[in-house]
Task: structure prediction
Amino acid sequence: MTQSHVAIVAFPFSSHAGSLFSLARAMAALSPSSHFSFLSTKRSLSSFNSQQLLQNISLVPISDGITTPQARHHIEAIELFLKSFKESLREGLKAAELAQDCKVRCIVSDAFVWLTGDVADEMAVNWVPVRTGSPLDLYARLNADLIKEIVAVRSYGDNLLSFLPCLSNHRATDLPYGLNTGDPNFVYHLICDQMARKLPESDILVTNTIQGLECNLDSYFKQNFTNYFPVGPFHLLNPSQKEPPTDSYGCLSWLDRHEPATVAYVSLGTIAFLCPSELTSLANGLEASGVPFLWSLKEETQSHLPSGFIDRMNETGKGKIVPWTPQTSVLKHSAVGAFVSHCGWNSVLESIVGGVPLVCRPFFGDQTINTRLVSYVWKVGVAMDAGVFTEETVVRAFDVIFKRDEGKKMKSKMNELKDMVIAAVEENGSSKENLKRLMKIVCGS
Ligand code: UDP
Result:
């Protein structure tokens, strides 16, 4: 019999839902007598396969807010979803309670759907917000007023943000788009801004990181949230999966044919994309470097590659270009020696777990903060000099990582971070222990 019914609410865009689903699986495995209803849009739920479901998790679709069938731009789809979110959530929760014949006792949600806090209040149940992306980015958002006050009145440029203890090695130029530069009405910025205003109402915060990974951050969050739970990386909390990863394009067998630490893996995550000229620069840089590469590139973007590039790479065997890879397994493969990335938070964590130095080309959101963390604070990666890919910067970055002493130091520092992260998710490790503490709030036992 179900002792506790917990609702988990996803933000159904980019990698957010997948990341939260990893946490949901870990919770469900720890509390077999509880039931977990995972709420997201139909489209986002369709990316989970039945192998990933435990018996005590059910998927509950909620409306995407789209009333006419025409194709939507990503940003418009987010706006529509948020517009009807509260109503959709109330309906989804009712359906979940009916299906389980059990009232929801606690609502865990992606902090991006911060309106969940209001619905939890209406139902008089606990709200547990989860920051799936970079915690350092959340720190910047929580300090947005101070940043705007100081950075706006002084010309900061490349000076360090020494007035912020957790960002004292970052520059104003590393702050997220929208917070300090660019359009403050950009939907991602608005979500983050409102999230940062709502979160202090909660005394609980869950993050996808480990204790001690980012300097001073634990003490800041502990001071501001009575119940602070760094339980990451979420994807490592899961009970071991017996099935091999889905590898529809044969990426892992292609990697098997390469010597250790000789291949570059390229992926810019689920939403970032390059304009055709920068795509060409990256392709030319990869080819000119002579480093074999595996590139995750959406089919519709592949058609913008320089003519003959894919055929040439196939014929020489120098490059494999596929629309999707099993990235966590790719980064753990011994052949991979560098990761060309947009520095989304999941990608950064997965690179640490693989012990692979990064080549960083950030776009928006938390990616600029993460890039500075990787390249300057941790010194486990190379940032593109001009902020964008050019043939020369790609060749130079590979030269550093694959051939120079600096690259060897990056690898060894990355292995130190990897050891820390693996220790945190072992039995009695900090993330495992924090998760057990969190479960007492979520399930009441
Ligand atoms: N990913 C993957 N295969 C690919 C490309 C991406 O599995 O070919 C996954 C990757 O493992 C990561 C997520 O997509 O978990 C991307 O998340 P991240 O936070 O790095 O970036 P976002 O997509 O949110 O910008």
About this structure: DSSP finds 19 helices and 13 strands in the chain. The first helix runs from residue 16 to 30.
